[in-house]
Write a structure and sequence with these properties.
The complex is a heterodimer of chains A (304) and B (455).
Chain A lengths: L15 H7 L18 E17 L11 H7 L3 E9 L2 E7 L13 H18 L3 E7 L3 E8 L3 H10 L9 H8 L6 E7 L5 H13 L3 E8 L1 H5 L6 E5 L5 E4 L1 H25 L3 E6 L4 H18 L1
Parallel strand pairs in A: 3-4, 3-6, 6-7, 7-10
Antiparallel strand pairs in A: 1-2, 4-5, 8-9
Helix pairs in contact in A: 1-9, 3-4, 5-6, 6-8
Chain B lengths: L1 E2 L12 H8 L7 E4 L3 H5 L13 H18 L2 E2 L2 H8 L3 E8 L9 H14 L6 E7 L3 E3 L7 H10 L9 H14 L4 E8 L19 E6 L9 E13 L2 E12 L5 E10 L2 E10 L3 E6 L3 E2 L5 E7 L9 E6 L4 E8 L8 H8 L5 E8 L5 H6 L2 E5 L6 H12 L3 E5 L9 H18 L8 E3 L11
Parallel strand pairs in B: 4-5, 4-7, 7-8, 17-18, 17-19, 19-20, 20-21
Antiparallel strand pairs in B: 1-3, 5-6, 9-10, 10-13, 10-14, 11-12, 11-15, 15-16
Helix pairs in contact in B: 5-6
Classes of the chains: A alpha/beta (304), B alpha/beta (455).
């Protein structure tokens, strides 16, 4: 079992059970990322690795040890072998801490579920020598920890401290966050995405267009998916505070259909924009959900 | 089927309550917090009519439960004839009719007899019945008879008594009759006004198993105001030598309302003498004093009569007043000292029971007729006269007459032989007649005999 040797207060969010399950998987960037040291991710540059990339003509100044003598034998010209470069990358979590994330019908709130998720992914990235950071936001940026190899503990601290208390919005804070990530990074957005799918994508696209590998984790409580209420009563919107009378019997089916359509629309739009989208229901154990997602991502990465 | 307290059916109006609950079933006041109502708001608004009754089965069950509860409170019971029709077989019926004093209130007695007659008329041909009339005791006519005519006649001839109510003897009598019966169905019908005082006596009475006891109350539902003449007292006095009496009547009001202008009359020898209005407050009593009247030589019947109310028996109080005992007293005083008897006369005049007629004579004027007419002779500061008068007084004393000797030793001289003889004579008379002769007292307040020492 993987153990976490840290005394950080946020270390409790790194669930050994989850790590035991997903520890063998890697969170590898699907896209080319820039880095300083050798890592798991494909760099935009050619460098030192065992993966052959291409030949190019010898130019004065090239190390003669890199000349492919076999090719010289066939073509009587000097060619130099070039190899793919592996690198490390920035890994940053964009965490929605709007009031709606504090909802939890089964004791575990979406915020807590997201904390475990973010902590595990950060740990995973940290272990593979990626630089780890976090940005929390509601309708504005709340806290920002720039990605750094030394910021894993700070990230855990931030996860521990954050409180869901204000109404949220995706557009403004994500647009602002775009400026934070100059270097192409892996960005994990954890939110309940209560907005129109088009608007959500409009908020996320700038991040994607900057070359980041964006992964959207859509975290919902089972009560939000199934709407299991029976009695006619008033429902209060956690974020707006607005109260409306609801007869659950009458609209349960329509509600379920709408939320499914929403999830499907998000998945479809993300797919079109080459953004990874994963729907997580908090009733499903995190290790199970995360393993499923990472395994699928791993498979897709290999396929490419 | 009838109901003992059909008024409870007014509570059927409460059936509207579950209907109302079903119609205006308000949504619960608690508010469920939900992350976002974005999707709920997208769903077209459905207006739901709250006034529409839903859950019909639940409503019917609730209404039925309420209706059954009300019916139970109304205390349904089956009439006896219906019961017989339902069960079959002949009955042994005991009808217990209360005829105590309280049954005279209003028309209770008539209602009780009507109820009893109704029971007798409802009897099946094979039914045996007994009518028991009870107050503090119980008595029955023909036992276990099928002759309805005799039963009805017994009911018609029954009269109220002045006794108090006791259920014990009547129920014990009924118990005996029912235990002796061979009929399969036993039934007792108790027709009474249910006076609380009578209940304790029935504590140990147990009717045979299976007996159906049907209570029929003839008590008045509302208040039972009642005025009674609780008693009367007579004050006597003398006016112009004639004895007079003034009657004071005491009236009690048992009701919860004050009675005003109640006319109360005093009847002498059956003739109304005086009528006065009186006010008696609720649950209290009042007294009323009539004008004094002169007593006749013989005892006269007197009645104090209040206006009739629902219980007429206690509205009149009868009594007689006989002329009081008048004791003739002869005071023999010193000649020429008329004022010497003034205080003695005044003292005797204050007494009313008995009252005294005083004749004052000086010792030289007294005659033997005076002595013979007196019951008591007072020798006020004089000695025993000599001669005929002295002999008459001596004889008077020996025959039981009273003698009071007052005065100093030097002047009031009665020979010791006289005293001894009188004493012996009185002892003999006392032994012979065992008579108190309390008015025959000889005292000497100042001589060797101490005051208060009786011979």
């Amino acid at each position: 079992m993987t153990t976490v040797a840290t005394t950080s207060p946020g270390a409790r969010f790194i669930d050994p059970k989850v790590l035991a399950r997903v520890g063998s998987l890697e969170l590898a960037a699907r896209f080319v990322v820039e880095g300083f040291i050798n890592g798991l991710h494909k760099a935009p540059y050619l460098g030192v690795s065992i993966d052959f990339a291409e030949h190019r003509g010898y130019m004065p100044g090239d190390d003669i040890r890199r000349i492919d003598w076999r090719l010289f034998a066939r073509t009587d010209r000097f060619y130099v072998k070039q190899f793919e470069a592996d690198t490390n990358t920035n890994f940053s979590v964009l965490f929605d801490v709007s009031k709606s994330m504090s909802f939890g019908s089964r004791g575990l709130t979406k915020l807590d579920y997201g904390r475990f998720l973010a902590a595990c992914l950060s740990y995973l990235s940290s272990k593979q020598r990626d630089r780890v950071g976090i940005v929390t936001f509601d309708d504005d940026i709340v806290e920002r920890v720039p990605p750094s190899a030394k910021h894993f503990d700070v990230t855990l601290h931030t996860l521990d401290r954050m409180v869901a208390g204000r109404p949220g919005a995706l557009g403004p804070p994500l647009f602002k966050a775009t400026e934070f990530f100059k270097r192409r990074s892996i960005l994990v957005i954890i939110s309940d995405f209560y907005d129109e799918p088009e608007k959500i994508l409009d908020a996320v696209k700038p991040l994607r267009f900057a070359g980041n590998d964006v992964i959207m984790f859509h975290v919902l409580d089972p009560a939000e998916v199934d709407f299991p209420y029976d009695d006619s009563t008033s429902f209060q919107d956690l974020e707006t505070g607005r109260t409306i009378p609801v007869v659950p019997d009458k609209l349960r089916d329509q509600y379920r259909q709408l939320i499914q359509d929403h999830i499907e629309a998000l998945g479809q739009l993300c797919s079109q924009n080459r953004i990874d989208y994963a729907f997580l229901n908090t009733k499903v154990p995190l290790d199970h959900a995360l393993f499923k997602y990472l395994a699928m991502r791993h498979k897709l990465t290999k396929a490419r | 089927m009838s109901f003992l307290t059909p008024l409870f059916f007014a509570a059927l109006a409460a059936l509207g309550v579950p209907v109302l609950i079903h119609m205006i079933q308000r949504q619960r006041t608690e508010v469920i917090e939900f992350p976002s109502l974005m999707f709920v708001r997208k769903i077209p608004f459905h207006s739901l009519r709250r006034q529409r009754i839903r859950h019909w089965l639940l409503l019917l069950l609730r209404c039925a439960a309420l209706a059954l509860l009300i019916a139970a409170f109304a205390r349904p019971f089956f009439q006896s004839a219906a019961l017989v029709a339902a069960t079959g077989g002949s009955r042994e019926v005991v009808v217990l009719v209360d005829r105590s004093y309280s049954m005279g209130y209003g028309n209770r007695w008539d209602r009780a007899r009507d109820a009893a007659r109704g029971v007798v008329r409802d009897l099946a041909p094979d039914d045996q019945a007994t009518v028991i009339f009870f107050d503090s005791g119980a008595q029955s006519g023909a036992r276990s008879t099928t002759d309805r005519a005799s039963l009805l006649a017994a009911i018609n001839d029954a009269e109220l008594s002045a006794g108090t109510t006791r259920y014990g003897p009547a129920l014990q009598l009924a118990q005996g009759i029912l235990e002796d019966s061979d009929e399969p169905l036993l039934e007792a019908i108790l027709i009474t006004d249910f006076q609380r005082v009578g209940v304790d006596s029935a504590a140990n009475t147990l009717l045979p198993p299976g007996t159906v006891l049907t209570p029929v109350s003839v008590a008045d539902e509302d208040q039972t105001p009642n005025i009674s003449v609780a008693g009367a007292s007579v004050q006597r006095d003398f006016f112009s030598g004639r004895e007079r009496a003034a009657v004071t009547a005491r009236l009690a009001n048992r009701g919860n309302a004050t009675v005003e202008n109640l006319q109360v009359s005093l009847e002498l020898n059956g003739q109304e003498f005086e009528s006065l209005p009186v006010e008696v407050e609720a649950n209290s009593s009042a007294t009323l004093t009539f004008a004094p009247f002169t007593l006749e030589d013989t005892a006269m019947p007197i009645s104090v009569r209040a206006e009739a109310d629902a219980l007429p028996h206690d509205d009149v109080f009868h009594f007689t007043v006989a002329p009081g005992d008048v004791v003739p007293v002869l005071i023999v005083g010193s000649p020429g000292a008329a004022d010497a008897n003034l205080y003695l006369r005044a003292a005797l005049a204050t007494s009313t029971s008995p009252s005294f007629t005083v004749t004052t004579r000086s010792v030289d004027q007294v005659t033997t007729d005076d002595v013979a007419a007196a019951s008591v002779v007072v020798l006020n500061d004089v000695g025993l006269p000599g001669g005929q008068i002295g002999a008459a007084i001596t004889r008077f004393v020996e025959d039981g007459g009273g003698l009071w000797v007052s005065g100093c030793a030097g002047r009031a001289t009665i020979s010791s032989c006289c005293l001894a003889r009188w004493t012996r004579r009185r002892t003999e008379m006392a032994v012979a007649a065992r008579s108190a002769l309390s008015n025959t007292v000889i005292l000497c307040s100042t001589c060797s005999m101490r005051p208060g020492a009786a011979i």
